[in-house]
Design a protein that fits this description.
CATH architecture of the largest domain in chain A: 2-Layer Sandwich
Number of strands of chain A: 10
Strand content of chain A: 25-35%
CATH superfamily of the largest domain in chain A: Pseudouridine synthase I, catalytic domain, C-terminal subdomain
Distance between the termini of chain A: 19 Å
Shape of chain A: globular
Helix content of chain A: 10-25%
Order of helices and strands of chain A: EHEEHEEEHEEEHHE
Oligomer: homodimer
Mean pLDDT of chain A: 95
Number of domains of chain A: 2
CATH class of the largest domain in chain A: Alpha Beta
């Protein structure tokens, strides 16, 4: 039996979705808890990894088990035994052809950037102390939409395509925050944080708008801004 | 020279304002940072202690130093060297007659109780899964206003008066939260969390409204509800 699991997590105290350098990963905690409930060894496959300190509002995983429990019994048991920074939002029995990574068609990431530092939000948003020109940032972010080779923004991983289609790349300014939303058919490692770092550099006037073309058309990594810090990043949704 | 210091802190990773059982206290961190900047040993006196996990939006302290720095140089140095979960909001030179504890005339505590569990807010608000009758809670909280012997709600500490004047005790309900606000000329240890625990028990129908009189008029501790958890509590303001 294969289950599809939708989870939220606070990435603050984890090394990322996968364990690294002996630090605890979300995956390890999920697998240990699932195995304990099912009384068999369970492996988890996610839609993709998230990095150290990055959060999820709707990460999707799948796992196989012989345990004949109802969806609601799984949900109750998981939320009882998981630590309080990981929450299962939904669990549903799926066909064995479903694969959390390979069946994913679209993902949404949100990046939350505050205008002022707030000690109570410091692990859940990034902040920028410089004033930003939103017009320049709007022009920059619009250039990301469409099909491009995003190699300039991401880290190349063998066997993973770097040409991706960005369905939505938008920026919303509120009184207190800048909210970036990205929806694409896939993302490279560090790609969202690298795009946000570059766009905010353009907003500060530190880099010209023209670098967007250099990066998207010529994959010129030397033009890319500093990778934005992880605490502002949320994997919001995965579509199948 | 005596300075008055107004600070905010995230109490999550501290044993409380004062160090306890070898755990780190806010006071210890403040004193070490101040001493390092002033190059002399500095002691800090606060308006009062806060417990493990309790936060502050406007705790007030004082300290004495020989160091002839301007207020703005102190502010800059402190916010540079303090960890990112303690923020100095204001620092000002005061008369030596000022005392952070003895000169305080009024304090405001706020308690934030959410209707749903949110993993990203779990250290910054309490939550209650039961529906609450706000009418009953409004009637209960109103009984706290005025001058009463609050011994039933607090922990008795020698030489500290238990008769206190509550200037404001109010409850506000939003779509997502219950917000309790208490302003008094002083608070006993655990008093706010004990009042909140009792009022929510009344809201759940677990205890009758009449216990408020038993506790306030007869100091009957057996009628008091469970102490509400610390993560929802904020010391908001101290008046002098």
């Amino acid at each position: 039996m294969r289950y599809k699991l939708t989870i939220a997590y606070d990435g603050t105290n984890y090394q990322g979705f996968q364990s690294q350098n002996n630090g605890l990963g979300i995956q390890q905690v999920l697998e240990e808890t699932l195995s304990q409930i099912a009384k068999e060894s369970i492996q988890v496959v996610a839609s993709g990894r998230t990095d150290k300190g990055v959060h999820a509002l709707g990460q999707v995983c799948h796992f196989d088990t012989q345990n004949p429990m109802t969806d609601s019994a799984w949900l109750r048991a998981l939320n009882t035994y998981l630590p309080n920074d990981i929450a299962v939002l939904d669990i549903v029995l799926v066909d064995e052809s479903f694969h959390a990574r390979f069946s994913a068609v679209k993902k949404c990431y949100v990046y939350v950037l505050a205008k002022d530092y707030n000690i109570f939000r410091r692990n859940y948003e990034a902040y920028i102390k410089y004033p930003l020109n939103v017009d320049w940032m709007q022009q920059a972010i619009q250039k990301l939409e469409g099909t491009h080779d995003f190699k300039g923004f991401g880290v190349f991983v063998e066997h993973k395509p770097t040409v991706r289609t960005m369905f939505q790349a938008t920026l919303e300014e509120t009184d207190t925050h800048y909210i970036f939303t990205f929806i694409a058919d896939g993302f490279l490692k560090y790609m969202v944080r690298s795009m946000v770092g570059t766009i905010t550099d353009i907003g500060r006037g530190k880099r010209p708008l023209s670098i967007m073309d250099d990066i998207l058309e010529h994959q010129d990594r030397s033009k890319v801004g500093k990778t934005a810090s992880p605490e502002g990043l949320y994997l919001k949704q995965v579509w199948y």
